[in-house]
Amino acid sequence: MQEQIKVLEKRLHEMARDDEDVDLLMSIPGVGFLTASTIAAYTKDMDKRFCGDFKRFASYVGIVPSVHNSNERVHMGRITKHGPQELRTALVQATMGMIRLSKITGEWRLMTDYRAMKTGKGSGKSIIATTRKLARIIFAMLHNREPFNPALMVRDKCLFTVEEVIGA
């Protein structure tokens, strides 16, 4: 069985050798070749299918909450899980990879928000919420054709100077 897996992985490497999407996705810390190739396979022709709209993409992936309305009451339920399970799993694996690389990603907004949410909401909901945020980053990367930029992940202590705020 191991030999068959190696043969299939070798063939997959050959097929995705020149795939720009796989290279872009592998620029994310914690995302390996199999995860990147799985995400790339499901996001081909993304601009045609989703017209640059992340909400459509998130709905396709199935990482949006189900909504139940009744007159004045709105109940947000579990994620819908519509769409390809493999893509959803690959996105969760990408999130888990980032969590495991806490030495690199520990101070990133994504991870500080994850840790803060984990204490109140629990691990599962926090991972899914972080996965949705990472899916937005991946969507922007593939839409804009830009590699992952770790400099954008760090939360600045102060975005504006006092003079900029008061208009001096």
Describe the structure.
The chain has a domain of 101 residues. By secondary structure, it is mainly α. The chain has 10 helices and 2 strands, in the order αααααββααααα. It is globular. β1 and β2 form a beta hairpin. A two-stranded antiparallel sheet has the order 1-2. 61% of the residues lie in helices and 8% in strands. The termini are far apart.
Write the layout of secondary structure elements.
Elements: H1 2-15, H2 20-25, H3 33-42, H4 46-50, H5 54-61, E1 65-70, E2 73-79, H6 85-100, H7 102-105, H8 109-121, H9 123-144, H10 162-166
Antiparallel strand pairs: 1-2
Which class of secondary structure composition applies to the elements? mainly alpha
Give the CA-CA distance, first to last residue.
Answer: 70 Å
Helical content class:
55-70%
Proportion of residues in extended strands? 5-15%
The succession of helices and strands, N to C, reads: HHHHHEEHHHHH
Give the low-pLDDT segments.
Answer: none
- Give the number of DSSP strands: 2
Continuous helix count: 10
> What best-fitting shape do the alpha-carbon axes yield?
globular
Q: In order across it, which strands form the biggest sheet?
A: 1-2
Radius of gyration equals 18 Å
What's the mean pLDDT score? 89
The biggest sheet amounts to:
2 strands, antiparallel
